[in-house]
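Q: Make up one entry.
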Amino acid sequence: MVSWSDMSNDVLEYVTSFLPFTDQKRFSAVCQSWRYVTKQKRYPPAPQLPWLVLDENKETKKRNFFNITEKRHYSIDIPELYGQYICGSSYGWLFTVDKRINIRLLNPFTRECFELPHFTCYEYHQPASHPEGSVPSTHYDYDEPASLPEGSVEDARGCTFKQLREEIVQKAVLSHDPNKRSWECTFRDIREIFVQRAVLSHDPKKRSDFTAMIVFGEYSVLLMWKPGERVWSAIDLHEGFRDVIYFRGKFYAVSSMAAIYAVEVGSRPKRILTVPEHDIDCEWPYLVDFKGKLLLVLRLHRDFKKPGNKFVVYEVDLKKGTYREWNDLHSHAIFVGNNSSVVIGPRKISCIRNGIYFNDMCKSYRWRYREHYSGVYNMVSRTWRRHRSKKNHVLDARNAALMWFTPNA
């Protein structure tokens, strides 16, 4: 029998590609040569179960995580996450926002980071026409020159004072004296007002031409950014977006009324279909790439006096504009929340088969009880339960958010 020390690096690399993230770290700590092996990444890694990103320890500033494979909590010192609100995760990267609304894209274990434009830096791209099935926008295209009446008196910027008063500025106020107070916001403001969801089109470690997409603001507009751009590009919809996904080379978004739209910069959001059965009782919709099939997962409204959870799942045909309901997930499990949705195959025995792992997303429920929890809904039995003990770790909903996160080092 060949001992571990006599195995070739190629064999060791293949073996370690099947290890969970924590076991890879333990493997690399054995010796220098094994550490070298784990850094090669020549073989695609086996699917990893997501972790839960929890809150920050107020004393040590370490970030708390929960590993559902080991059912174990970890407190990890990551200086880049000190005082940061985590508003999204995708491909093992975290979207972080501080109290001055500076946003970053961070891989917490490799420390790679992208500085993204400030949220105040975005612009609308107004198309020339309104294609069929599109939604009109109420925003102006400020790139177009203003048409002024003959004989009008213009200032140096080419705008009349009458236009300033009637068309551009109605009123301007300050919340505080800038000389007496520096502007900051609370984490609740960030979650409620600024960031609803944040996703990536590709893993930045594998493709430099990735795109970041954020569901932003009280009215849930979409902000899109690519590396090298100085501002976000905004896409608006009167219904408000709730989730977004990059699927088969395009971005698709779902509204609060369970309607799916194709979205791109320079064009109006084009409605593909609506699920009329749940346009009223849908509490939160999610889009999931299920092995090349697009799923619309709807979390239905709950009774606050008797909290519970119920989900319905539809497979969407984008070409035909049709949908059909699923009664199970073919022994798979899916993870939904503020993160990019994750699908885990039936070989991962640590998961509940046909389970929808979710985090509490309802604003009014969170702020009423000031905590969130994480649970799993069984598609076959139509029941749900918490998959962590409430006593283990309860979050203050005012300062943190539960987030699924797949380590990518």
